[in-house]
Write a sequence for this structure.
């Protein structure tokens, strides 16, 4: 830690400019606007105000997120198999962030799944083992942990 301090402040106590910076960031993230200039004009603040505060204010939920695990599975192209995989994730109470399944080739599909580990998430090794043992799963490989 470099001596920074953090405070949890109610919205009503924040200066309007900080709330507008948060709104401008939200507009950019949602791609409703494409440039900082458009975002700052939409919320009626200067670009210099945006740049001054953009790295210092975040909605509370952005700082309370858990860790992310991305893994890849090779699996048979069978009806219901993806549902079984997702049910195993749900049983662990992890949050699914992204799902990408390739078009099956020769009856085999690749699935990339990113999940968020929440405070109530339990048994990631158990979840991974349960997925690996499902009939039709060829392998499970963890690609990244953040």
């Amino acid at each position: 830690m470099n001596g920074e301090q953090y405070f949890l402040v109610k919205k009503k106590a924040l200066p309007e400019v900080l709330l507008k910076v948060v709104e401008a960031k939200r507009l950019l993230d949602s791609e409703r606007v494409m440039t900082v200039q458009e975002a700052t004009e939409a919320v009626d603040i200067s670009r210099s105000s945006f740049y001054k505060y953009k790295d210092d204010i975040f909605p509370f939920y952005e700082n309370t997120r858990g860790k992310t695990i991305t893994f890849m599975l090779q699996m048979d192209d069978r009806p219901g198999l993806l549902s079984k995989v997702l049910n195993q994730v749900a049983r662990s109470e992890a949050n699914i962030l992204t799902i990408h399944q390739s078009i099956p080739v020769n009856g085999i599909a690749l699935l990339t799944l990113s999940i968020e580990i929440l405070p109530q998430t339990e048994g990631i090794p158990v979840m991974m083992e349960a997925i690996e043992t499902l009939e039709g799963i060829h392998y499970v490989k963890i690609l990244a942990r953040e």
Remarks:
- The mean pLDDT is 86.
